[in-house]
Specification:
The chain has three helices and three strands. The protein is α+β, with helices and mostly antiparallel strands.
Amino acid sequence: MPLEEKSSKSLSRAMLPAELAGRYSVERVLGSGGYGTVFLVRDLLIGRLVAMKLLHHGMKSGGLVHRHFLQEARIAGQL
């Protein structure tokens, strides 16, 4: 089944870590790149749509990629 046809509930279970799946529901994939995938998610607590970027599994450890990810998040948070 193509990704676009899956329900939000099944997308959330398949794509979000357990600690995030209870708070956010995946609406759709916005894009994917070298570091990770960006999702349009609904914050279930406040009902707001937000973009969430998750690092690819092999890039979750510390180091340069992690520092770049945090720097990107800080810059995006200022917008």
